[in-house]
Design goal:
By secondary structure, the chain is of the alpha/beta class. It is 40% helix and 17% strand. The chain has seven helices and seven strands. The chain has helices at 14-18, 20-28, 50-68, 86-99, 114-130, 168-178, 193-208, and strands at residues 4-11, 32-39, 71-74, 103-106, 145-149, 162-165, 213-218. Strands 3-2-1-4-5-7-6 form a seven-stranded mixed β-sheet. Strand 4 (103-106), helix 5 (114-130) and strand 5 form a beta-alpha-beta unit. The longest helix is centred in the first third of the chain and has 19 residues, at 50-68. The protein is globular and about 45 Å long. It comes from Microbacterium resistens.
Length: 228
């Protein structure tokens, strides 16, 4: 029986970019991956109206998840307005209770985006809430490991202490799937996300002694995602 990993991002596309190669690797090794976006990310296009871009983002998130063999979910919060209260955390906690992930991947706690920081806060709070005996029909569940993904927008104080080898097959699956997202192709504000994260994997591979790797901050040592 494989493991279940839940990747929690602030917007649709965040975990696709940062954790996507690792999720693709895990799926190819027989694990189950769920991508949860806390907001639609619908305000991230300079020329497309938010309502239209919201529909596009959901379709892109669904297609990416399908492309790497993962599952996709999105909470009903608006881009730029993610709360960090217990109501939002409880929604995530209920997903944790139901799906019982051994591993949660989320943002680093410092970011230029408030939604990223709040997603990290919510992930930690949801982990705690899910472990409590509160009478949920799904019971309680303790997440063994939280990992913080490497994101250029979340760089303050981020020093990886875990490197995960990304085989060629996982990288190719990720690259093919991420091409379906307009912002990743540079069609919103021009940043070459795919090139950046491809180069980052090569750089981290140099540090890890492999061709490619993804770097994470491991929040504790209760369990470990196998590195290179």
């Amino acid at each position: 029986m494989g493991r279940t990993v839940l990747a929690i991002g602030g917007h649709i596309g965040d975990m696709d970019l940062t954790a996507g190669p690792t999720l693709a690797k895990m799926v190819q090794e027989g694990d189950r991956a769920i991508i949860l976006a806390c907001t639609y990310g619908e305000r991230g296009h300079p020329t497309v109206a938010p309502e239209e871009y919201r529909t596009q983002k959901v379709a892109e998130g669904e297609a990416f998840a399908a492309g790497i063999g993962a599952e996709f979910r999105v909470l009903d919060y608006s881009d730029g307005f993610l709360p960090d209260d217990d109501s939002a955390a409880e929604q995530i906690a209920d997903i944790i209770r139901q799906e019982k992930p051994e591993i949660v991947i989320t943002h680093w706690k410092h970011s230029i985006h408030r939604d990223h920081e709040r997603a990290a806060i919510l992930a930690e709070r949801a982990r705690f809430l899910a472990s409590l005996p509160v009478g949920s029909p799904y019971g309680r569940h303790g997440v063994s490991q939280i990992l913080h993904a490497d994101n250029w927008e979340d760089a303050e104080g981020f020093v990886p202490n875990l490197y995960v080898d990304i085989p060629d097959a996982a990288y190719e699956a990720w690259r093919a799937a991420i091409q379906g997202q307009a912002f990743a192709r540079g069609e919103t504000y021009g940043f070459r996300y795919i090139d950046y994260y491809s180069a980052l994997m090569l750089a981290k591979g140099c540090l890890a002694g492999t061709t490619r790797a993804c770097g994470f901050v491991r929040a504790n040592d209760h369990a470990e995602l196998a590195g290179p």
